Amino acid sequence: MGSRDAVDQAFSRLAKSGRLLRVARGIYVAPSRGREETQARRTETVALSIAAKGKVAITGNGVVAAKSFGLISQAPDEVTFLTTGRSKQLTVGLAKASLQHAPYWMLALGRSRAGDAVRAMAWMGAECAEETASQLHSQLSVSQWEALSAVRASLPTWMAIAVSKAGIYGGLRNGGGATDQRPRI
Fold first, then answer.
1. Terminal C-alpha separation, the chain
2. For the chain, which residues score pLDDT lower than 70?
3. In a domain, 184, yes or no
4. Same domain, 45 and 97
5. Number of structural domains, the chain?
6. Residue 12: its pLDDT value, please?
7. Interval 119-154: pLDDT, tens
8. Residue 50 sits in which domain range?
9. pTM of the model
10. Where are the alpha helices (DSSP H) in the chain?
11. What is residue 71's DSSP assignment?
């Protein structure tokens, strides 16, 4: 190996020559050779690699989660990931993405469907919380809803109340309790 300056200079030369892409400060990736991998997928792969290297949690943001549940029809073009680590900007080829630090409760359930429900509710906001929670209750399996209900204490008050109400009233509407017909996944 060489000195820190020599290594930095070598990375800089490789980036200038196109043999490496500088994604963020101190983070480089090899450029893709073909078009088989979409830019969005590649950006997600880089973000997940950064998370694994830094031992931090990372997941999609509330907009992506809300779209996956059909709560909204369009999502913005910008790619944002939520993380327990530091916020930073990434540039992978022509695509730009950001890692945005988020509070623990947004990432407590990880990349699960129940975790997506938390992020979707947070993005939709307190004014739509009860309606959103009711819609999510009908879309989540019983085990996913139970996982969401189990973390109510760490959620903001408005969200915890909405989850509780949807669990009580949603369960009654859907034939709750032991006769609940939602799948147990």
1. 50
2. 1, 33-41, 170-185
3. no
4. yes
5. 2
6. 85
7. 999 999 999 999 999 999 999 999 999 999 999 999
8. 32-179
9. 0.75
10. 4-17, 39-54, 62-68, 104-107, 113-124, 129-139, 142-150, 157-165, 171-173
11. S
